[in-house]
């Protein structure tokens, strides 16, 4: 079974659900998931100990570093950094080489990080895993471009197909309000169909950092369309590398060609999108154009989608008007925007996974809740936040 790296967390959730329920033997289950039995038992052990958080991809950093840079070289790197605080690792590496000391830029950067000599705002975590969709419309990346240089507080909204780099939409919304973005998305869905999934950052209007769980009315509306939602890591733009590179090309065009007056910005964006899709060859596509590889999605947009059908026999509960779940005479905060919606509960030992459509939105730990002095408060605190998606085949949905 070929798994895309974006679904590593999903794969592990699927596995522990099946393993905990004894649906198959461990041998058959590990064969299906293309993992070794020791790995399967390790995932199950970590889930039972720490829940979904325990089966997340962990750091691969070794506990011991026998080849760690010598202390003398580290001191010299620190001295050069003090002399030239605006020089980065590449330039310091070059300077060391001029002094007869060969140290790779990556090593210099690690030393600077270890010594606390890299400003927080300059830190960029490398993307540990790359992912690439095979077919058009499996995943769309969506983001707002920086407004700098556009004479507005809001930059253009971009939607890019992951597999083909096709710019599905490039809109001058003038606002990050959910209503404005939803209106543009409706037009895009009507013209291009629906993607299987969408990837966004933790920004407005698809994410609310002030609300418990982060869900918004817009993200709920997207889930009702049967679209899986993924969110990039906080301060981790590499996850959305394709749309970021698209924004780089857009910014270069703005600087070199200039912008017309504000009333004609959308026409300028339409012309750029036409050129980018139809005329501009893309190196990552073997010098083909995005339009030569992309096609409309077969999934058509329905402005009034039918209610999501959970699998027969599933434990389904309706959330209260506050978005809370009444369970075991306790109220658990799930998500305000999901008020009065039906959710599915999957019980695994003392934990409960809460799904809305095919998206895992909460993990409730009943054992921790029972240890709390105040049950209601403990319930709210122990509702883990996991905006992960579970493939429909795993959940058994017949939507």
Descriptive report:
With 399 residues, the chain is an alpha+beta fold. The strands form three sheets. Strands 3-2-1-4-5 form a five-stranded mixed beta sheet, sandwiched between helices. The protein has a five-stranded antiparallel beta sheet with strand order 6-9-10-11-12. Helix 1 crosses helix 3. Strand 7 and strand 8 form a beta hairpin. The chain folds into four domains: 5-55; 71-122, no CATH class; 140-292, Nucleotidyltransferase, domain 5 (2-Layer Sandwich); 315-395. It contains 13 helices and twelve strands. The longest helix has 17 residues, at 241-257.
Adjacency order of strands in the biggest sheet: 3-2-1-4-5
What structural class do the secondary elements suggest?
Answer: alpha+beta
Count of individual beta strands: 12
Strand content: 15-25%
CATH H-level homologous superfamily name of the largest domain: Ribonuclease H-like superfamily/Ribonuclease H
Secondary-structure element series: HHHHHHEEEHEHEHHEEEEEEHHEH
Low-confidence stretches: 1-6, 125-130, 234-238, 372-385, 388-399
CATH fold naming of the largest domain: Nucleotidyltransferase, domain 5
Quaternary structure:
single chain
Distance between the termini: 23 Å
Q: Averaged pLDDT, please?
A: 81
- Counted up, domains total 4
Indicate the overall shape.
Answer: globular
Largest sheet: 5 strands, mixed
By CATH reckoning, the class of the largest domain would read Alpha Beta
How large is the radius of gyration? 24 Å
